[in-house]
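**Polypeptide and fold**
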Amino acid sequence: MTRKPIVVVGAGFFGLYIAEYLAKRGRDVLVLERAPQVMQGASFANQARVHNGCHYPRSVLTALRCRVSFPRFVEEFSECIQDDFDQYYLIGKILGKVTAQQFSEFCQRIGVRLDPAPQDIVDMANPQLVEAIFRTEEVAFNALTLADVMKQRVEDAGVMVRTGIGVEAIRESPRGLTVVARRTAESEPESIEASEVFVCTYSNTNQVLCGSSLEPIPLKHEVTELCLVDVPGPLTRVGLTVMCGPFFSVMPFPSTPHHSFSHVRYTPHSEWLETDCSAGAAPREIQDSTRRTSAWKKIRYDARRYIPILDECVHRRSLWETKTVLPRSEIDDSRPILFKADHGLPGLHCVMGGKIDNIYDALELIEGLGLTS
């Protein structure tokens, strides 16, 4: 009897990578994606930073996982990496949650090299608000190139990808699982038999679970605005991150000619906790209904207090997306992998990562399921 395929719900980076991983180990894999194209949601609308650990002085475990994943991701996706810029971390004096000494000791502990910033960078900062500036190694990835790479990789691995079809529910069947999918609200539902199902839909994870009459996973959502800006000449090949407390960041965004600009206070435009199935509207629907009035003026006003030259940035456009994290991550800014094996049904697995390089943590957990034996 032919073995039924593994169905992966969601064709973001995580969904495609997991699909390829399973296919290369002998499994038939089908990916279902609601959008007309792959990797056009959160896989694209993010800061495109490949973390090297510096970002997480309040979560040593997250930082150490970054240190393990960083070189692996950079090597595996070298054609997608932009590294021709200098990355600087600035430690704020007011309302900060980490001092310069604490940050330096933290980076030494996790094995990240810090160098003093050159004088031209130091001179850009307001010494009344910035305690110290360090140069370190971080890179960015081109999300469009990464999408092209992953499309080719899953094709080469024999993965079938169907776009424009949304998954409404997953049911237990006598022979495994049945995935109920539909192309449009008016079209007839389609039933797809599967041996296992991986839900990799990021912010819409609970929409699949609630549609399946299964217990949702507590999640926090934020509708976010990522500003894309042109920076003044001296910052063309520079990334700046001010932390930790008065946090904002500006760095190259390789899939465009611009820099991304995010701010801990103004990037989120609305937020809510999802702990049950009573919300009704999906995060995507809430995102689409959120009034899109840019916070760029407020972001620029606050950022120029720390680095006056940022007042010369020109806002070109903004990317809007729903950011989703585990509620406990709000305490220490950690970014653990979400991995729920056999969630409500045997063979139904939920996977969500807070960073793109979390994928390697997910693979370690998937190996434990024994799906490729």
